[in-house]
Amino acid sequence: MAMATDRQLLLSGRYLLTMEEGCPPIEEGALLIAGENIAAVGKTAELLQRYPQAPRLHTPHGLIMPGLVNVHTHAAMSLFRGLADDLPLMRWLNDYIFPVEATLSAEMVQVGTLLSLCEMIRSGTTSFCDMYLFAGAVAEAVEESGMRAWLGEAIYDFPSPSYGELENGLALTEELIARYREHPLINMTLVAHAVYTCSPALLIRVAKMARQANLPLAIHLAENEEEEKSCRERYGLSPVHHLEQLGLLGPNLIAAHCVMPDDAEIALLARRGVKVAHCPHSNMKLGSGIAPVDTMLAAGICVGLGTDGSASNNTVDMFAEMASMARIHKARRRDPLPVTAQEALHCATLGGAKVLGAEQVIGSLAVGKKADCIVLDLDQPHLTPLYHPVSHLVYATKGSDVLHSMVNGRILMQDRKLCTLDETAILCQAREIAQVVAQRQTAPVDNKR
Ligand SMILES: [Zn+2]
Question: Is the pTM of this model over 0.85?
C-alpha cells in the first residue's frame, strides 16, 4: 500500500501498455507512482482527477510500458565487443575469450559492467540477470546505476582470475549471498558455467547451495552440437539428460540457450519446470543454431529473452533481440505463425520476470508492483503510422527510441540523458581498458575455414 508520505509522480502518455494478461493498450493512459511502487493505473483524465496534486511527467507521443528484462548476459563482456567475431563457440571461447578473461581485474569488470549499464538503460532494459567474474564489482556497478539485477559469480573447475581456486569461488558466492540478502535491487544467483566446464561433483554441489539458499541456479545448457557431442562422449548422455541424472533439472534452474533439445527433452524440461533463457542473436552469431522456442512455449516452458554478452551479440539491445526472436522462428519453420509479436514481447517482459521468479514484483504494470517502466518516443518516421502498438514494439522499434527509464520509482534516464551514471567518463575508461585488452590478445583472429 502506498504511504501518504511517498513521493508521487503521474507518468502519462499517448499509450499505456501494461502487459497484464488480456489488457489491451490504454489510449491516453497513465501510471501513478508512489515511492517505489505503482499506486494506480488507468486513463490519464481519471488519474488527473484522483491525484490533482501529483507532479506530472507527460509525453504526448509517448508509449509507457514495463522495462525489459534481460535474463541472460555477461555485462562486462562489453569490453570484448568486436574483439573476435565470425568464430564458432568453442574456438571463440578457448582461443580468444578465456585468454583475455584470464587477465581481467575487478576494476576492468566494473568499468565493462558500467558500459553495458549505460547501453541497457538507453535501450529500455530495467532488469538483467548476469553471470560473470568479480561479481562483487558487478554488484557495485549495478548499485551505482540504480538498475535491478540478478548476479552470480561464474563457477567452474579451473582457476578463475577473480577468485583463484574453486573453493574460494564457492566461499565468495556465500559471502555475496549474505551481503545482498536484503538489498532492494540486487539479487544473487548461483552460477555453474556449463556441463563442459563443471564436473558432475561440482554441479551437484552448486545445485545444493542454490537449494539451501532458495536461489536460482543459472547455467549454459545444450548450446551447440559440440557441447552435445562432448557431453555424450564423456558421460554417455546429452547435456539435458546429464543434468537430469545429477538432479539439477528443477524450477530454480535457468538454462541459457537450449538450442539442442529434441521434443522428448523439451517435454522433460517442461515437466521439471526448468526456465529457459533464449538468446537468438548469440546463437546465430556463433553458428550454434536456433533454439526450438516455439515447441518450448507450446510445451508450457517459461521462456525469457537474453542478449548474452556483447562479445557474441554484439549489443545488449533487447528491442533488437525481440525483433530477431519474432522473425527467426518464422524463417526456420517457413511459417509466419511461430512466435508472434505478442509472444516475443511477453518473453522480454513478464516472461522474463517469471524466469527470475519475480513476476509478483516486476514484468508488468499493475498496482502494487515496483515502478520499473520505460517511455518510448512514438513521434518518429519509422513508427508512423501506428495501428497496433505491440507490432511496432517488436518489428519497428529500436532501443534508441526509449526516452525515459525508471527503476523502483527512480528515474534513471530522462529525455535520453542518463541521471545516475557519468557516461562520458565511463566511455573514456572503457576505451583505455580496450587498449590493454588489445595488447593482451595473444593470437590474431583466424576465422578462415
Ligand atoms: Zn552466456
Answer: yes
